[in-house]
Structures are given as structure tokens and as C-alpha cells.
Amino acid sequence: MIGRVNHVAIAVPDVEAASAIWQASLGADCSQPQDLPEHGVRLVFVTAPNAKIELMEPLGDVSPIKSFLRRNPDGGIHHICYEVDDILAARDRLVGEGARVLGNGTPRTGAHGNPVLFLHPKDFCGTLIELEEVKG
Ligand code: CO
Question: What is the pTM of this model?
Fold first, then answer.
């Protein structure tokens, strides 16, 4: 059911400092920081040949990654995003197998303009999984 890994998201306390490390130490190709207030994050997109990494800093008072950073003050891997062809079919299959979808189960528009859903980390070995519908 799942397709390519679309991105791995890393929560960081300071996205500019993190981007400087990725560029200087890893020689990575990093975007300029972008504010996504509707998602409560400031993002740097790191492009690798086979996937993307997203460095995310909390933005605003209700950022979904604030509590993660309280538990992991240095930052850390926050979620893995897999591509799916049909997000509603994927959701219905997962719910049928007992997995929990976060929120009300209706896909939201993600950072790339595509429909996304998140799956409860307790159902996936402690890993928050994002599904993103990408038309092939
Ligand atoms: Co994501």
C-alpha cells in the first residue's frame, strides 16, 4: 500500500542553526526557511537525490511540535512521510485494521499542497507516520 518515502521530518529548536549544520557539515542542499503558519512550523527543505528531509521549528503558540521539543530539547526525528496513491482508501484500510488516525480522520492539506493524514505513533512502534497522497 505505501509507496516512496516522501520525507523525514526533524523537529529542531532553531531551523536556521540546523540548516547551517546540514549545509556546512553534510554539504546538503537546503532551501531558505519558509513560514507555514497554518501548520505551526517554520521549515527548511533539504533535498537529497532520493528523498527530502524537513527541518521544522515551532511557529506560533499552538505549534504541533512544541511538546515534542519539550521532551527532546535538542531536536529529533518527528515523523516519516510515505506516499500513497489514494489517501481515503489507505485510511479506510488502516482503520479497518485497527490503526488510529489522528484528528477527525479527514485529510488536511499538507506542506506540499497535497492531502495528508497522520497515524497514531502507538500503533507503529513509537513512530508518527504521515501519509501523503501523491498522484503518480
Ligand atoms: Co511531514
Answer: 0.93
